[in-house]
Amino acid sequence: MEELAGMAGITVRTLRFYRERKLIPPPRREGRIAWYDDTHLARLRTISALLERGHTLSGIAELAEAFDQGRHVGELLGLGAPTEEVPVHLSPEELADHFGDQATSENLSAALDLGYLATDGGEIVHISRRLLDASAALVREGVPLADVLAAGRRVREHAEALAALFTDLVLTRPGRTPEDLERLRPLAKAVTEAELSMALDRRLRKSTYEQSQNG
Q1: For residue 181, what are the β-bridge partners?
Q2: Which residues, at least 6 apart from 189, have a Cβ–Cβ distance to it below 8 Å?
Q3: pLDDT in tens, 95-128
Q4: Does residue 72 lie in a domain region?
């Protein structure tokens, strides 16, 4: 314990306090000897980094609990790794850099349940760089992360329906194979993006008109 505390730059008393608060996992024991490893050191450095960023110990404890109970990356990628999306490896403090005080245990659990996040040893894995960047940008624009995740769940439902529609459109034709579906993927994306763009145009015109009437 003294060696670990020294490497982490904290006192033994502080380390004991972190253990009591369950901020770090228990050590491996052999008789009366408690063994700590690099995982414990990484967690302590993460705690220090989060404290420097203004997070409270209560918030860090909630984050650690959700992190420890999260879905493992093998389970997530075992469902089929995305063919176009690029996963991103993050430390807990890097996740906090993206979402600040909204990186709560509730939001982290929701993201784990949605399949956006998984754990990989001492790191968090986000399944898609594009989704991570878009989510962080919305939060910076003042949209609560909980609302972003709720919207993501609804978008997932609509995306599944669109994917099913296009799959049926292609594979119900005689002689078609999954390779054809993959080859025609850009067409499905083009149609979806064009229709979404036009739908946003209609919404924008409607909102502008309503604002002018109310003003």
Answers
A1: none
A2: none
A3: 888 998 888 878 888 898 888 988 776 678 898 9
A4: no
